[in-house]
Amino acid sequence: xxxxxxxxxxxxxxxxxxxxxxxxxxxxxxxxxxxxxxxxxxxxxxxxxxxxxxxxxxxxxxxxxxxxxxxxxxxxxxxxxxxxxxxxxxxxxxxxxxxxxxxxxxxxxxxxxxxxxxxxxxxxxxxxxxxxxxxxxxxxxxxxxxxxxxxxxxxxxxxxxxxxxxxxxxxxxxxxxxxxxxxxxxxxxxxxxxxxxxxxxxxxxxxxxxxxxxxxxxxxxxxxxxxxxxxxxxxxxxxxxxxxxxxxxxxxxxxxxxxxxxxxxxxxxxxxxxxxxxxxxxxxxxxxxxxxxxxxxxxxxxxxxxxxxxxxxxxxxxxxxxxxxxxxxxxxxxxxxxxxxxxxxxxxxxxxxxxxxxxxxxxxxxxxxxxxxxxxxxxxxxxxxxxxxxxxxxxxxxxxxxxxxxxxxxxxxxxxxxxxxxxxxxxxxxxxxxxxxxxxxxxxxxxxxxxxxxxxxxxxxxxxxxxxxxxxxxxxxxxxxxxxxxxxxxxxxxxxxxxxxxxxxxxxxxxxxxxxxxxxxxxxxxxxxxx
Length: 531
Description:
The chain is an alpha/beta fold. The protein has two domains: 2-238 and 354-412, FAD/NAD(P)-binding domain; 256-348, Alpha-Beta Complex (Flavocytochrome C3, Chain A, domain 1), CATH 3.90.700. It has 13 helices and 16 strands. It has helices spanning 12-24, 61-71, 78-98, 130-142, 222-229, 261-264, 290-304, 318-324, 326-334, 391-407, 434-450, 457-480, 485-506, and strands at residues 2-8, 30-33, 50-51, 123-124, 148-151, 154-160, 180-185, 190-201, 234-235, 240-247, 268-270, 309-312, 344-353, 356-358, 370-372, 377-378. Strands 1, 2, 5, 6, 7, 8 and 15 form a seven-stranded mixed sheet that branches. Strands 10-13-12-11 form a four-stranded antiparallel sheet, covered by helices on one side. It has a three-stranded mixed sheet with strand order 9-14-16, with helices on one face. Strand 1 (2-8), helix 1 and strand 2 form a beta-alpha-beta unit. The protein is globular and about 65 Å long.
């Protein structure tokens, strides 16, 4: 199969790019592939909203820029921050014109929320399912365009480069080029190839590397791992954001997210004694940035010997709460918790990767003809910690910028037809699936116990030794058995785990989301860890 533009992933980044490209180039073929259903993405689970300077009488670009830089703890690319903040409102207006229904107040003005780290109310939202609403609008519009093909249940195995033509490719190779991807059809179990002129990686995050995460089952870091195997540049993987307030339900995965907007509207964190403890950790109390709140909760849990803390919403207006957070209210009721009468048990959960595939200001990766946007990309916006509700904004801005840059290049690129078919000779079906499932359990346990919110040099060293063993065992299995989605996801998760640990070992300081008790002082030398 061949296409002009290949988009890997159907979240807000991938859909935004595909829609813009299809409308500008009705004569070109745009192909979107996703490994499950089109709407099963991290975007779907984004509750809080999208940040943007909307009320210019009270807010300003400068305030939003400053808030982002402060949250990023010195590692943001200031030029990128300015680009995203200043271009963001126009991208939001575009999706509103497509039909996105953001909440309004009784005067008909957009109801702007406030979350941790923000100095002003600037977050547009649709109830507590903002990402789902934005994705719905994009999918409706995409389905009306004839030159877009959306392929579900199609698993990307690897990016195709010169390596597959027999050339030696290393990290120092200057002209690594993407020619498309090898894909596994999950319904036929056959591996084929999709050749493309331009490939866009919008494959999401890697929360499933941890035992407790708000990410869906599909968030296995596939895009990041594939780019690393293709010798592309990855950066800042040590900065894994743990959302402070996931609903505490032992054994349930993924964890149900209690959006930060609840605290923005007045929710208060309390420990088992009922004490509002955040004032002891930060003057911004419950509206401190996520890294600070997550560490505070982690410390309270360890100090008091509990597995969770509580979110107190009992004092909040019931009608307003149910209107703004209907899904949260119903979810809590389903497990016997009335948020207006009971405290909600919450605990941190892996939520977002601030690092990823290194890109420039146009979404270009270190591999020619390969772009990346959304959570799988490291654009320079987030630095050491993402400011709440900046993720959907970043995805839309860089999808647009990738679209602008790649649309002018497509006519100069030729399809590479010499790519060999996938060879599976000498392999057989795996006889024991437990070899895969148990290794994945071991991986999540190692990452959660040793590479979580608080780290030490000894924990990181232990994690690396165990990952080395898992890698060796899994590669032997990969060489001797047929490729399956489960085996590929395990390989990808082990690679992502390695990148997180290696980045954490290289960073000899505590900064943002990386907190190492052996290196608590911040370094004056600010740097991105590129792997």
